[in-house]
Amino acid sequence: MIAIVDYGMGNVASVKTAFLRLGYEVEITDSVERLEQASHIILPGVGSFQAAVEEINQRNLAEPLRKLAQQKPFLGICLGMQLLFEKGYENGISDGLGLIPGDVNVIETEYILPHIGWNQLQIENNNQAFQVFQDKHVYFVHTFQARTEQNYLVATSDYGTTVPAIVQNGHVYGMQFHPEKSGEVGVDLLKVFMEQTTSVRGLEA
């Protein structure tokens, strides 16, 4: 079972539909017990970093999510990806989950913000699992971006500056764009995430 974390700030229904298309059992939940029973954890998100952290803390999910990310494949989507990092600077300074080194700040670009629309992926570090997605278009909606070291980058996108699009630290992944809104390419990206992580610690989807 795949668990989608429900903390009140995500496109949970559309994310669930995308995984259902791939044939997986999916549950939307904020129950730590149910999250512990899942094979994979998906953390979606729409809105501000600060508000998301407050919601997660109010539901007492921060520490359980950190623990689960050490045990199970974990995917953050859009704001959910940003929450994987150590700190966010939207509406003040907030602590993220600290699963990937780095922080989140406004995109430094001359282009109009927010960054909304289709943009191409550039695969980094010769990542073979995702190489098929070189130059593929995915759908972004964001004003803030992650800042992290090169070795955590799977893919980037250009928006007048280099924007991390897919990040990875072990079996923890993040996608800044919305795979659930990116058509067949988005579904295929989720499929590759599942293929790359299903064998982690002998887990099965």
UniProtKB/TrEMBL annotation:
CDD domains: GATase1_IGP_Synthase. One of its GO terms (biological process) is L-histidine biosynthetic process. The keyword Amino-acid biosynthesis applies. GO terms for molecular function: glutaminase activity; imidazoleglycerol-phosphate synthase activity; lyase activity. Its main location: cytoplasm. Residues 4-185 form the Glutamine amidotransferase domain. It comes from the Bacteria. Pathway: Amino-acid biosynthesis; L-histidine biosynthesis; L-histidine from 5-phospho-alpha-D-ribose 1-diphosphate: step 5/9. Transmembrane segments: none annotated. Keywords: Amino-acid biosynthesis, Cytoplasm, Glutamine amidotransferase, Histidine biosynthesis, Hydrolase, Lyase, Transferase. The active site is at C78 (nucleophile), H178, E180. It catalyses: L-glutamine + H2O = L-glutamate + NH4(+); 5-[(5-phospho-1-deoxy-D-ribulos-1-ylimino)methylamino]-1-(5-phospho-beta-D-ribosyl)imidazole-4-carboxamide + L-glutamine = D-erythro-1-(imidazol-4-yl)glycerol 3-phosphate + 5-amino-1-(5-phospho-beta-D-ribosyl)imidazole-4-carboxamide + L-glutamate + H(+). It is found in: Cytoplasm. Its EC number is 4.3.2.10, 3.5.1.2. GO terms for cellular component: cytoplasm. The keyword Hydrolase applies. IGPS catalyzes the conversion of PRFAR and glutamine to IGP, AICAR and glutamate. The HisH subunit catalyzes the hydrolysis of glutamine to glutamate and ammonia as part of the synthesis of IGP and AICAR. The resulting ammonia molecule is channeled to the active site of HisF. Heterodimer of HisH and HisF. This is Imidazole glycerol phosphate synthase subunit HisH.
